[in-house]
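I am hoping you can look over what I have pasted underneath with an eye to the fold:
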Amino acid sequence: MAGTCQVTGAGPGFGNTISHSHRRNRRRFDVNVQKKTYYVPSLKRNVTLTVSAKGIKVIDARGIESVVASIIARGEKI
């Protein structure tokens, strides 16, 4: 089962796979999720997050401190 990103909240998408004869079958577009471990200085410990490729870029841009603060504010357990 495909996971969801803890940073962006992205989950699997759904659509059709279309063959050469143009027959349609339902399919699922899974998110590229990775388990990444980050050190969070304010918590003084390592945190393992399930993040998508876009989520990794968000962490690089905003910083791990603000991302973890927003995850905790949402009520998710880390």
About this structure: Strands lie at 13-18, 24-29, 33-40, 45-52. The helical segments are 53-62, 64-74.
